[in-house]
Structures are given as C-alpha cells and as structure tokens.
Amino acid sequence: MLEPLRQGLPPLDPADVSDAASCSLPARYEAVGDARRFTRRTLDQWELADRFDDVCLVVSELVTNALRHAMPANGVRTGEQNPPVRLHLMRWTERLVCAVRDPSQDSPVARDSDDFSAESGRGLFLVDSFSDSWGWHPMRESLGGKVVWALFRLQSHPPTAASPTPAE
Q1: Digit-coded pLDDT (tens) for 31-71
Q2: Secondary structure of the chain in HEC code, one letter for each residue
Q3: Tens digits of residue pLDDT in 122-131
Q4: 148 Cβ partners below 8 Å, 6+ apart?
C-alpha cells in the first residue's frame, strides 16, 4: 500500500498551464488504445511527438491499472453512461503531467516481483522507470476516487544544430 504522494510533483499553478486536454474513457479494455490515440494526437498538436514513446507507455499503464484494479467488483463493462476513468494531459513550459482519475479510493500497490516472465504486476515499476516522478492522491470526498499522476520534464529550449558544443 502506498501513501498518497504529492512530493515529487512540484507546485504547478493551474493558471500557468500552457496546454491541457482530457478525455473520458469507458470501462472496457479497448479504452487503453483510445487513450494511446488521444495521447498521440495531443502530443502531436503540442509539438511533443518526440516524447510519445515514454508518455504513451506510462499512459497505457495508468489506464490499464485503473481499468483492472479500480473498477467496481462487477468488473469492466461494455456500455457506460458516465465513463468512470478520465485521462488528463497538462503541459507547462518545462513539464508534462499525465493524470488518470478513477473511482476507487484504494491506493496503487507496487508489486515487488522477481518473476520476469509474469504478464502483469510491473505497471508501476514501468511508470517509475519512464517518468521523472509519479504519485497519487485522493479526490475530494464529493468527487470520490483518486488521481494517479506521472510527471515528465521537458526541455525548455530544444537544442539546435547550430548550438555550440562544450569544449572537452
């Protein structure tokens, strides 16, 4: 059981967000593909396509965990009036945050597994490995559920071919 983590997520003023996008995801496993396509389109629009591989892997893991572990006991359903999972992508000048909201109050559980042939159980390890930091926090009681987030640092000024290289 992980304690709610806010450390590692630097103070990010919502008023300073340069770009934000979100989408609702229905409670079905095909929603992971929808999340990847949404992430691709969004990062392309924000001219961050070079970060797609890492961000997409993390988004896939967070959405999969939400669908697999945070859904009510009756499991993933095919028809949904109010999709229970929501993906948020928020960009600041030097940071990108991916956040997945789900209806569960339960904290994410990072499994410690030495079984490298296992087909599941490494999602949070991958999130930790591919993002700069991650964590989670409960939503206000009126909303219920929680948000699991991952932060990626962005280069403030991409290097150009004309940039001088440091002397050795």
Answers
A1: 999 999 999 999 999 999 999 999 999 999 999 999 987 66
A2: CCCCCCCCCCCCCHHHCCEEEEEEECCCCCHHHHHHHHHHHHHHHCCCHHHHHHHHHHHHHHHHHHHHHCCCCCCCCCCCCCCCEEEEEEECCCEEEEEEEECCCCCCCCCCCCCCCCCCCCHHHHHHHHCCEEEEEECCCCCCCEEEEEEEECCCCCCCCCCCCCCC
A3: 678 899 999 9
A4: 62, 65, 66, 99, 100, 102, 108, 134, 135, 136
Joined together, the tokens standing for residue 95 give 């940071």
Provide the whole-model pTM.
0.77
Dist CA 44 CA 18 (whole Å): 15
Distance CA 88, CA 14 (A): 13
- In the beta sheet, which residues pair with residue 100? 87, 148
Which residue's entry shows tokens 């600041």? 92
Torsion-angle region of 145 (φ positive above 0: left; ψ -120 to 50: alpha; else: beta): left
Distance CA 78, CA 165 (A): 55
